[in-house]
Amino acid sequence: MSSAWYELLANLAILSMLVLIWSNARLPHIDCPQIIRQFAFGLLLGLGAIIVMMRPFEIGKGVFIDSRATLVAVSGLFGGPVALIVTAFCATAFRVYLGGAGVVAGLTGIGIAAVVGVLGHALKKNERPSTFGIIIFSACVAAGGPLSFLVMPQASLSTLLSSTIAPIAIIAFAATLLVSLAVANEIRRRDAVMRNHVYKTVIDSLPDCLNVKDMEGRFIVANPATAMLMKVANPDALLGKTDFDFYPFDIAEGFRADEQNTLLHGTSEVIEQQVTHRDGSTATLSTLKSPVRDSSGRVTGLITHNRDVTAKVKLEAALAESERVVTAALTNMADGLIMFDKDLRVVFCNEQYRTMFPLTADLRVPGTPAASILYASIARGELINIPTDNVTDWVNAACSRLRQPGTVQFPLYDGRWIESRTSPAADGTCFVVCSDITKGKQSEQALRDLNMRLAELAETDGLTGLLNRRAFDAALTEEVARVGRGEGALSLLLLDVDRFKAFNDTYGHTAGDDCLRAIAECMRAVARRSGDRAARYGGEEMVLILPNTPEEGAVALAHELRNRIRTLQIAHTGSEKGIVTASIGVATLANHTMGPDAGRLVVRADEALYLAKASGRDLVRTWEPAKPKLVSGKSGG
Hints:
disordered C terminus; 4 domains; five-stranded antiparallel β-sheet; Beta-Lactamase
């Protein structure tokens, strides 16, 4: 019996050696296809099955057993169909080779073990079998062993079953359990090694610093980025050392205080640290410190993740400085600035812009639609000269202009003028710069008024304030052309102050100038219509252009003018009238009465004036083709 136990131990040793060979004779760095690994696993267990069949042990008189069923079943459970086929093939081939009376029973046992193995593999669904599952699996393998004896002759079956069934089942169960647990643990170990390898690869590949310290602050794990930060050759140079070995004392002491605070409270925290190395170089780190706990939840160390944010901090500082400069520029700029998004809602505006529009400053804030601002500005009377019957169309047109580059000038309620310059961007946003151009507009209006004044002065007689001869000629030519187009009659009054040379000789030129100015006022009083124009023709002669006036109307105005001059009662001892009087000649150009010739009309008025003087002065005469007739002679004629 001691020999049987020896052989049993030899079988178990073979099984253990197979597991040991499988555990160590592997190439983890070679990426083999899965089917190759399964084939190798099946081949190893198949060779093991051959070896154990070469070392069977006797458990009863003439009854020999081995652990081939265990290896076949385990191959199917862990290696799948590919491994099972290889193992079963090796075991079957060798058992047939051995021959003997138990060939059929041996092959049946191999077949039962293969069925149990493949069923176990299918039921575990590519997951690692649990300990309980392995026990059930081992029991099934143990139960399958005695079943192989059912194919033996009936005469010896009862004797075998009564004396060997229990030992066979126990040995098969124990062997299968031992091998399955060993393989399962090895698979778990391989998985753990693979995960650790992946984790290490990931950690070593991180561009950020990652390290673990014990409760005393000593490095126990560090990646290459940490070594680079600490300015050492490799991570191994950090192990067992603390920050005090690499940083100035005050810096390292600050780091240790932060670590102890994290360990004390047992919570993670993110802090920003300024680092100064022994060589004087500096860096800014964003540091995550998190406690490491064991399975019982007790804090056993500290994991630290450092990210060098020196460039980021410098960039943020530069950005903050740029924002400060831009803000200062926007705050101090004289112009107003507003930005709209693609939906024409306010994104930004400076204070100058809001100050330009005090009645709607409360609406000119981020988020307000441009249309709402315009409607409110119109309703509150800030924008003026907007057609009240077409406000909606006006607002829509104004919003449309925000999508196109251009310049618009508009007045405000308080007399100020604003110029807005729109610059749309490709993304649909737009910038509008508003400038107060009130002074420019005022200067422009002043210049316009000055030009008008200069134009008036160029056309005005300096003494009387009436049109000068040049302006008279231009106006008369224009009116004659109008008559030539059939647009109504034109009359001309030509006035001459009677005995004016004698007046100057008697009273002096200053009094003469005053006399002419007074008569000019009478001319202006008579020229009441906007189209009537009075001019100084030369010396003491004055002329009055009367558009759309027939001869009768012109004569009436001539009498009114003559009487107004008499009413002045300007003494004139050099005249037979005793006061200043004037003679007036009237000429009328009706439709088609003569060609459009201004010179001929003046000549006719002059001829009528000559007749008035020849008839006794202080008279009004009209021009006639045959002979001039006396129109009035009762007023001092």
